[in-house]
Specification:
The complex is a heterodimer of chains A (about 550) and B (about 110). Chain A is an all-alpha fold. Chain A is built from 22 helices and two strands. Chain A has one domain: Up-down Bundle (Amino acid/polyamine transporter I), CATH 1.20.1740. Classes of the chains: A mainly alpha (about 550), B mainly alpha (about 110).
Chain lengths: ~550, ~110
């Protein structure tokens, strides 16, 4: 199968979703009103509430939600063949993610820009709000742990990327200084930054760096994990303008360049997809595709994390209500196209099926490394870059995504810790250094507990992250559905995705529960049970709130 | 920086129509978008950090009135009328519903 055909089919599907389905949703279901006074105008304060040009807002929304997850998920999931992953990404983007993301912004815009967490309390109930807080904490915890494992694996597998990956931090620090202290024109600085980053990528292969095989009994993977969290802990304490802001900016530019490069290379070299459409000979120990596919690919098909961004910052900057469609739905389309690129790279970037099978030798293997290898082969043949540089380029792309998410993730987790310190009156937790240390320590514990100190655990924890993420999406969809029901509008367009998600999530958790039990993996077993309890509570909330509503309706009529 | 959220600021001067002019125009638009893309996401965080610093400054200026000795009060006294406008917001942010100063009423 030609990769170009799949690529065009996918893009056409998502375009149809945007031009047809999202218009229907925006006009008939959400009834976006150009005359509605958005919170950005009503509560304008120049701090949180700022009316923003929709293209800029889309750029921010997209770069905030697009991380390493839409690469890792599909890269793991193609083990079942490219077709299931492709269909879930395309239909997920059209009917799930787009509606969910735009819906979360709309729900927030209609409620003075309040976050979905706060809305859950108002619209559904306080119990649901508590579940929401727990789920958010779990998502952050897992995102940090998982990404640390991903990055460390990549750095060990591709030593040529070590210099550009850490060099990118220095580039960001310098850019921050140039902009704030020297006030140099941003366009000039951006060009310098991008050129410096790519120069580092160019010299990366000539200066590969490998950590010693064992330090104090810790293998190279674990050393990287510790170093990464040390960095993330320090980075989360620095003022945002110093590191996070320039780093995010360079990453955003790099995202557009990288995505463009991969797509252009596919169009130029037209590789053939060597992986089977449906893999009938999956390696032993691979869990069943149903339901695991639907939690393995979360970001790229539907992800609860987007709801946090949508309702946390984006909704406060919506200039006109109809912009919700472009920013929210098209943001999901952008993420879907990233996932599509990941699918193509991991299935079409190999010479033979045997080579592909060798990489996907077990569930959780392959993954991002397959994305790097396959993507590099495509980029190299499409653009004429040397293979070594192409590998470095894609590794840096994946690591930088995961890295910025970790920076923000640790910071957010510190806030949660401090909040708990205030709530339960633990003075020590209120202090910034203590809260940071606790946040970092819990993540390290999870990374080691789940990934295995030697890195052999690989990505076992990934589907668990997916389930938590889907639960979060389920809660957001519940809020939107309840709002629609109260406005006497059709609820099926959000209720059906919600029902599907919750079914798959609970199903997947049960399947994994059995796997962990049989493997004797008690740590993950407990984590699974915690998430399962949260899932059941969400389910009960859904049934409860909808039943109550229909009873009231019947009583009224 | 324009906050109207609609479109980047345009040059309303006479249009030469020359290539250089249109290039300059394009660069201006590109810079505007780049700057917005750089700052929009962190505007809130940075504005908040700045407000925190301003709050500390307010406390220094008004400390003498609240019984906290301030060796520089001779100089900060002069600043008080300039900060008057921000006083109301400040004391409310600090958790005081009413003005804490007897002779300094704003609400």
């Amino acid at each position: 199968m030609s990769a170009i055909v799949v690529l065009l089919l996918g893009l056409a599907g998502m375009a149809a979703g945007y031009f047809i389905y999202s218009r229907f949703i925006a006009e008939r279901i959400f009834k976006l009103d150009p005359d509605f006074r958005t919170p950005a105008h009503e509560l304008e304060d120049g701090i949180d509430y700022v009316p923003t040009n929709k293209f800029i807002l889309w750029g921010h929304h997209f770069t905030s939600v697009a991380g390493a997850a839409p690469i890792v998920g599909p890269a793991v999931a193609v083990i079942w063949g490219w077709l299931p992953a492709f269909l879930w990404v395309i239909f997920g983007t059209i009917f799930f993610a787009g509606v969910h993301d735009a819906g979360a912004i709309w729900a927030s815009v209609r409620n003075k820009g309040r976050s979905i967490g706060a809305l859950t309390g108002d619209v559904v109930g306080n119990r649901a709000r508590n579940v929401f807080m727990i789920v958010i904490f779990l998502v952050l915890l897992m995102v940090n742990a998982v990404f640390a494992v991903v990055i460390s694996n990549l750095l060990v597998a591709n030593p040529s990327s070590v210099v550009p990956v850490w060099g990118a931090i220095i580039v960001a620090l310098i850019i921050g200084q140039l902009i704030y202290r020297r006030r140099i024109n941003l366009l000039t600085v951006s060009i310098i930054g991008v050129v410096a980053l790519y120069a580092l990528i160019g010299i990366g292969p000539t200066v590969p760096i490998e950590l010693p095989e064992s330090v104090a009994g810790l293998p190279a993977n674990s050393q990287w994990i510790i170093l990464l969290f040390l960095y993330a802990g320090i980075a989360s304490l620095l003022p945002v303008w110093m590191l996070l802001q320039p780093r995010d900016y360079i990453n955003g530019l790099q995202l557009f360049i990288g995505l463009g490069l991969v797509y252009a290379a596919i169009l130029i070299s037209n590789p053939t997809i060597v992986a089977p459409a449906i893999n009938t000979a999956v390696p032993e120990g691979t869990p069943s595709m149903l339901p695991l596919l639907f939690v393995t690919i979360a970001c790229g098909a539907i992800s609860g994390f987007h709801g946090l961004v949508s309702s946390g910052t984006t909704s406060k900057q919506i200039n006109r209500e109809p912009d919700v469609r472009f920013v929210g739905y098209f943001g999901a389309v952008g993420e879907g196209s990233l996932a599509l690129a990941a699918i193509l790279a991991t299935t079409a970037g190999f010479a033979t099926l045997g080579e592909w099978r060798e990489l996907y030798s077990a569930f959780g293997q392959g993954g991002v490394n397959a994305f790097v290898e396959g993507g590099a082969a495509i980029v190299a043949s499409g653009t004429g870059l040397s293979e070594a540089i192409a590998v470095t380029l894609l590794t840096v792309m994946a690591v930088l995504f995961a890295g910025t998410t970790m920076d923000t993730g640790i910071r957010l987790q510190r806030y949660i810790m401090q909040e708990w310190g205030t709530m339960y009156n633990i003075p020590a937790l209120k202090s910034v250094p203590v809260a940071t240390v606790v946040a970092v320590a819990t993540c390290v514990a999870l990374a080691f507990g789940a990934g295995g100190a030697d890195g052999t655990g690989g990505m076992l924890i990934w589907p668990l992250f997916g389930t938590t993420n889907q639960l979060l999406a389920g809660l957001t969809l519940l809020v939107i559905t309840v709002m629609l029901v109260r406005l006497a509008r059709p609820m099926w367009f959000t209720l059906l995705p919600l029902a599907f998600l919750l079914t798959m999530t609970v199903f997947a958790l049960l399947v994994q529960l059995r796997t962990f039990y049989e493997a004797g993996d008690w740590f993950l077993l407990v984590l699974d049970i915690v998430i399962l309890v949260a899932a059941v509570m969400v389910l009960l909330e859904c049934v409860g709130v909808l039943r109550k509503h229909f009873q009231e309706q019947r009583a009224a009529s | 920086m324009s906050d109207d959220g609609k479109r980047p600021p345009r040059d309303h001067g006479p249009r030469g129509g020359s290539k250089a002019e249109s290039l300059r125009e394009w660069l201006r638009t590109a810079t505007y978008y780049a700057e917005e893309f750089y700052s929009a996401r962190y505007r809130a965080t940075i504005a908040r950090a700045r407000r925190d610093e301003d709050d500390l400054f307010m406390l220094l200026v008004f400390s003498e009135m609240m019984g906290v000795p301030n060796p520089a009060s001779y100089y900060t006294m002069e600043l008080q009328p300039l900060l008057m406008e921000r006083f109301h917001d400040w004391h409310r942010r600090m958790g005081m519903e009413r003005s804490p100063l007897e002779h300094f009423r704003c609400c």
